[in-house]
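step: validate -> pass
step: tokenize input -> pass
step: predict -> running
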Amino acid sequence: MRKLLFATFVLSMLAACSSTPTKEQEGAKVEEAKPSATQRAPAPQPAPKAETKPVQPKTVQVNPLKDPSNILSKRSVYFDYDSNIVKDEFKPLITAHAKYLSQNRSAHATVQGNTDERGSREYNLALGQRRAEAVKQMLQLLGASPSQVDTVSFGEEKPRAEGHDEGAWAQNRRADIVYQGE
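step: predict -> pass
step: emit ->
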């Protein structure tokens, strides 16, 4: 703040010192004497300029986990029916989360495994756990610390879609990455 005030003060002083011709000065022009070949006039020196640095606007840190334009804001990995194999289309998502966790060692995530409503309660809890473990394993292979990632299975207990058709079931077959404090 002091630098900004000082720069403003210096600029205002320079502006006040600059001269503009008045009416009285316009009429009284004096012819300048040209130096002879033996007399050389010193080269004019440019006036020293006040040193000013551009003011950088303060940047607001946006949480990459909440920035909708950042891949880290996407948290769900979807699975095929009766499968816990991570599809290729979700590998960049998991890679981004693993990189975030490896760069932010204080961050902690829980992978929540979910299933659709088909199958017994016990089977769905086991399948949800396998899905969560598959995502956790990829996160660890890509750089996340084992202590940063926990898993839990909700089975069919937390559906994203309430329907009883393939569209709703596809939305419920997922593993969600949830960070601590969210």
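step: describe -> The longest helix spans residues 121-141.
step: cleanup -> pass
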